[in-house]
């Protein structure tokens, strides 16, 4: 399964993370926003759609930069592709009712993160 996610940086270098809703796989853990790539989508189109759906933020596909990927072994073989982008302003809303926030690296690393998101956060700060 192919999943895409976004490390969105604000002007002071903080990263946007959101909390997975209770009852879902990895519920309550924090993650980069994003989601599954549908069969008719390219990864970039899927990520633009997910960011709009989850945070009400429209991004241009060309503003996304591929960064790193992680994988979770197992039956579903989830591969999570991380892109980066800069936040240029606009109102953000947790449209699924999820908590979200901007975090400096140390604060992000102290959150209970989903496993692949933790790996990707570490790559971002190498
Ligand atoms: N962000 C993240 N997603 C993960 C990890 N491990 C893992 O299996 N996933 C899976 O990757 C998918 C992410 O897509 P999503 O955010 O659109 O999924 P979702 O929870 O809304 O839908 P779902 O409940 O149908 O799975 C989920 O199925 C999630 O369970 C992980 O470490 N980080």
UniProtKB/TrEMBL annotation:
SUPFAM superfamilies linked to this entry: Nudix
Organism classification: Bacteria, Pseudomonadati, Pseudomonadota, Alphaproteobacteria, Sphingomonadales
Family: Belongs to the Nudix hydrolase family.
Known EC number: 3.6.1.55
Cofactor: Mg(2+)
Catalytic activity: 8-oxo-dGTP + H2O = 8-oxo-dGMP + diphosphate + H(+); 8-oxo-GTP + H2O = 8-oxo-GMP + diphosphate + H(+)
Name of the protein described by the UniProt record: 8-oxo-dGTP diphosphatase
A GO BP entry: DNA replication
Gene Ontology molecular functions: 8-oxo-7,8-dihydrodeoxyguanosine triphosphate pyrophosphatase activity; 8-oxo-7,8-dihydroguanosine triphosphate pyrophosphatase activity; 8-oxo-dGDP phosphatase activity; 8-oxo-GDP phosphatase activity; metal ion binding
InterPro entries the record matches: MutT-like, Nudix_hydrolase, NUDIX_hydrolase-like_dom_sf, NUDIX_hydrolase_CS, NUDIX_hydrolase_dom
A Pfam family per the record: NUDIX
Alphabetic keyword roster: DNA damage, DNA repair, DNA replication, Hydrolase, Magnesium, Metal-binding, Mutator protein
Domain Nudix hydrolase: 1-126
The organism of origin for this protein: Aurantiacibacter rhizosphaerae
